Amino acid sequence: xxxxxxxxxxxxxxxxxxxxxxxxEIEDKEFMALLGxxxxxxxxxxxxxxxxxxxxxxxxxxxxxxxxxxxxxxxNVGLVFQNWALYPHMKVFDNIAFPLELRKAPKDEIERKVRxxxxxxxxxxxxxxxxWQLSGGQQQRVAIARALVKEPDVLLLxxxxxxxxxxLRLEVRAExxxxxxxxxxTAVYVTHDQAEALAMADRIAVIREGKxxxxxxxxxxxxxxxxxxxxxxxxxxxxxxxxxxxENEHLNVYGNRIPVPAQYxxxxxxxxxEEVILGFRPHDAxxxxxxxxxxxxxxxxxxxxxxxxxVTVSFNGAHVKVFAPEGEHFRFGEDxxxxxxxxxxxxxxxKTEKALEFLES
Length: 361
Ligand code: ATP
What we know:
This protein is of the alpha+beta class. The chain has two domains: 4-232, Rossmann fold (3-Layer(aba) Sandwich), CATH 3.40.50; 237-358, CATH 2.40.50.140. It has nine helices and 20 strands. The chain has helices spanning 42-50, 92-102, 107-120, 136-148, 166-183, 194-200, 218-223, 228-233, 265-271, and strands at residues 4-13, 16-26, 31-35, 57-62, 65-66, 77-80, 154-158, 186-191, 203-208, 211-216, 240-247, 250-253, 256-259, 275-280, 285-288, 295-304, 308-315, 318-325, 335-340, 346-349. The strands form four sheets. Strands 6-7-8-3-9-10 form a six-stranded mixed β-sheet, sandwiched between helices. A five-stranded antiparallel β-sheet has the order 13-12-11-14-20. The protein has a five-stranded antiparallel β-sheet with strand order 15-19-16-17-18, with no helix packed on it. A hairpin with a 2-residue loop joins strand 11 (240-247) and strand 12. The two termini are 33 Å apart. Bound molecules: adenosine-5'-triphosphate. The site of adenosine-5'-triphosphate has 12 residues, from strand 2 and helix 1.
C-alpha cells in the first residue's frame, strides 16, 4: 500500500551495467509487471526495490520518502521467489510464522495471523504438513502466505509461477491477481512470460538490456508497441513484420501496393520516412482466396488449434502468421491474399525500429 518511485536507477556489477537509468512510477495498489527476456535486468531491479541490492546511482522512494539507504528488513516488503525456498524441516505453520517469529510477535498474534492468511490462500488444512508433503501449487501458496503474513506494504514476486505446470499456472495466476486486488497491496511482478504479464498486470514495463523500452497498460503495449522489439515480444504468435517502402500514398510491400493506413498519412508526409517495417498482429488480418486487394503470397503452412488455425503465408521468403477460422482447408503452396485491418497496422522506422508515432518523442 505504497507508491514506489524509481529515479534514474543504475546498477553495475563490476564493469557490467545491469540497469541503465531506470525511472518508473508504480502507483499505490498497482500491479506492475516487469517483462523482458532473460538477462534484461528484471530481477536486479526487483532486488533493488527490495533493498537486497543497492543502486550504483539513482534514488528509490516509497510514498515520497527516500529509502535508498534503508536496509531490506526496514522496508516492509514481502518477497516471493521462483524457487519457493520453504524451510524443509519446518511445518507449513512454522514456515508461514517465521517472519513474525523473527519480529518476536506475541504467540496469540502469530497464531491468528497465520490462520488468517492460510485461509485466504486456502491452505488452512495443510498447516501441519511438511513442505515435502505438498504439491508444487500448495508450496507456492505457502511461500505467498509467508510473504503476506507480515502485512507488507509492497509484494515483490520473481517468476513465482514458473515451477508450476501449465494448468496450475493458469489457476494460480487468476487467484494471485484477485488476491492482490482484494488486499489492495502494491505488487511488482517479474516475468519473462508475456501472457502472464498481459493477464495479470495493471501496467507492464518492458525491459531490455537494463532499459525500460515502454510502460503501459496491457492494451497499450500490445496494440501500440513503441518498438518493434515490444511488438515481437508480446503475443503468441507475436506481431508480424514485413519490410515496406513508402511511395507517396502507398506502401510497397514485396511488390504489393497497399494504401498508407489513414492514421499514418499525415505523419508519413511530415517526417518524410521511406524505409519502414509494417507490423500487424495475427488476429488483425485474414487470409482470402481469389481476387482481392491485399498482399499476395502463398500458403507455407497451417496449424489447427481447435477453434481456429494459424496459417503461415510466405512472401518471397518472408513469413507472416494469420489466424483463420477452423474448418477452412488450405493447401501447401496455394496462392492467397492477406488482408490486414488497416487501423491496427503499426509502422516502424527501419533504422531505429521505433514506431513512427514515437519517432519525434
Ligand atoms: P532472468 O529472467 O534470466 O532471471 P533477468 O532479466 O532477471 O533474467 P537479472 O538476473 O536481473 O536478469 O540479470 C541481469 C544481468 O546482470 C545479467 O546479465 C546477469 O548476468 C547480471 N547479473 C545479475 N546479478 C549479478 C551479480 N550479482 N553479479 C554480476 N552480474 C550479475
